[in-house]
Every structure is written in C-alpha cells, then in structure tokens.
Amino acid sequence: MSARAVELVADELDLMRRMLPLAGARVADIGCGNAQMARRLVELRLVASVAGLEVDAIQHAKNVAAPGVAGLEFRLAGADAIPFPDASFDIAMMFKSLHHVPVDRMDAALAEIRRVLAPGGLAYLSEPVFAGPFNEIVRLFHDEGAVRAAAVAAIGRAVERGVLAQVEERHFDAPIAFRDFDDFFERIVKVTHSDISLAGERLAEVRRRFEAHATPAGMRFVRPMRVNLLRRPG
User: Contact at 8 Å (CB) between 155 and 165?
Assistant: First the structure.
C-alpha cells in the first residue's frame, strides 16, 4: 500500500479553522513576527482578541507603529515569560517560533503556555520540518537542525510530563515562492531576529542552488511542516 499523500496547505489559516475552535477565542500569538496571522484573525472577526508577543525589539516596534486594529495588542516579551495572568487565553499559537526559543528555555516556554491557557485551552505549535530542497539551501548559511530537533523534543517532554496533553500531530506541505534571489535575500537572510552573515563564496553557492529552481513564475518551493495540537489538562 502506498503512503498517504501529505496535504498541501496554501494558507495555514484554512488548516487552523479546521483544527481550532476560533469563534470567540482569546488568542496569544507567541513569537508573532510581523503579526500577519494575528491581524487576519481579528480583521476577519474569527476570534475575540489576539495578543501578539514578539521578543525581537525591532519587529515589535514595527508592529506597534503599524495601523491599529480593534482586538489586537502587542507586547515585547518572550515565550518563557508571558506577561499575562493565569488562564488568560483560550488558544496559544506559535508559528515557526518555538525553535527560536533558547534551548534551555523551551521547557519553561511550554510551561508558561500551560499557565496562561484556560483549563482545556489549546496550544497550536506549527514548526518547519528539517527536510526538503528549500531547507537544503537555507542550511548552507543557517543550519537549524539542532534547534528544530530540540523543539520537537521539548514538545515530547511536555506531553510525557503531563504539562500539556497531545490532541493531534499533523504533517502538511506549505508552498513558499520568491520573485528572485533579491526577494529571497530580503525575506530569509535579512530577518531582524537572526544574525546571519552571507557573503563571498558561500553567497555565490547559495545563489547558484537557489537559481537552479528558477521558473518563469519565479522560484517555488514546498516546505514540509508539522503541527502539534496540545491541550491544557483540566
């Protein structure tokens, strides 16, 4: 019997709407980045409110300076010290951000998520899998193999210790596209939350491998993803 095909998810919000009880939810978007998903959730009135937490001061300042949206607030904070009282949220989300938490603070971050979730509340943890052609390009200058494995291990410990209960683990593929190498460099290399240096021969090799995927519509890749849906017991 052949393996079941992994679902291609062009818009992760579609997947979230299937997996999460969004209506009326108080949501924490932890490691919210540019807050694109947080803004969509409140602008589409899919949830009651979103608190966007970002530890990168540069990105946080950009989020605060952007036009305000009713129901959306921002805090400069990390996942291991969430500045809200116990049981403040129905849903906590992390998009490609758990592996950015310092490895020795990942357990504390998951304990904090439990603390701020209401009993029965859900944690939606979406992480890139360390595999695929796009990953093989990025790892030439930013190898996240160890930290991504540490994030998976931290989730496993949280479940094993009863901090959070596993509801579901789902794998899917997410498309990612770039106009050209300059677009890739701006969006992937020049991110403010990481100190990435790319120049000389390494830059030339990254460009060569990236441009090998050129199509008339630009460079298109598929990234394998994993979602762990966890629940606070009680």
Answer: no
Separation of alpha carbons 1 and 16, rounded Å: 30
Cα 122 versus chain centre, distance: 15
CA distance 125 to 101: 13
Domain membership flag for residue 88: yes
Put residue 100 in one of left, alpha, beta given phi > 0 → left and psi -120 to 50 → alpha: alpha
Q: Quick check: helix, strand or coil at residue 116?
A: helix
Residue 135 belongs to domain spanning: 7-174+223-231
Tell me if 38 sits within 8 A of 52, measured CB to CB: yes
Contacts 24+ apart (CB under 8 A), 184-187: 184/210, 184/219
Count the domains in the chain: 1
CB distance 209 to 137 below 8 Å:
yes
Q: How confident is the model at residue 198 (pLDDT cuts 50, 70, 90)?
A: confident
SS3 68: coil
